[in-house]
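User: Hi! I have a protein structure encoded as tokens and I'd like to know what sequence might fold into it. I'm fairly new to this, so please keep things simple.
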């Protein structure tokens, strides 16, 4: 049943952003949708944190889920921004950071929902990724 709850959350996300890989423009919309589902976000956040312990029943689910999400977001970053990212980031590194930003904001939002508006913050992070590399400018 635990894995079914987690899969249901992913199905809800796919109803908001039904195509894969999700483009960077879809990320802010997905975060805004998740902000309307605090109970689901809370369950996902707690279970993902607990899954790092040995023999947790959802550990393999989260390992595979994060692997797949990183790959899809890296593909979307590469498709949307190419290989020249700020600070010399790779698409894979930027994907990991974007996921970390989203997961970290979820925790902060769950603790203080009136103090954070997750979607615009994630949008600003994506805008920062779109900023041209300073070291690639002509001299």
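Assistant: Happy to help. Inverse folding works backwards from shape to sequence: for each of the 139 positions I chose a residue that suits the local structure. Here it is:
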């Amino acid at each position: 049943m635990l894995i079914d709850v987690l899969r249901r959350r992913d199905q809800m996300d796919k109803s908001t952003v039904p195509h894969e890989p999700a483009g960077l423009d879809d990320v802010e919309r997905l975060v805004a949708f998740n902000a309307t589902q605090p109970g689901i976000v809370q369950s996902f956040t707690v279970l993902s944190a607990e899954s790092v312990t040995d023999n947790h029943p959802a550990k393999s689910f989260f390992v595979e889920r994060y692997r797949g999400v990183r790959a899809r977001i890296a593909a979307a970053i590469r498709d949307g921004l190419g290989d020249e990212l700020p600070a010399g980031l790779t698409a894979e590194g930027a994907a990991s950071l974007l996921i970390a930003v989203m997961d970290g904001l979820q925790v902060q939002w769950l603790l203080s929902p009136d103090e954070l508006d997750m979607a615009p913050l994630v949008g600003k992070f994506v805008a920062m990724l779109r900023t041209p590399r300073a070291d690639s400018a002509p001299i």
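A useful reference point when you look it over: The chain has six helices and no strands. Feel free to ask if any position seems puzzling.
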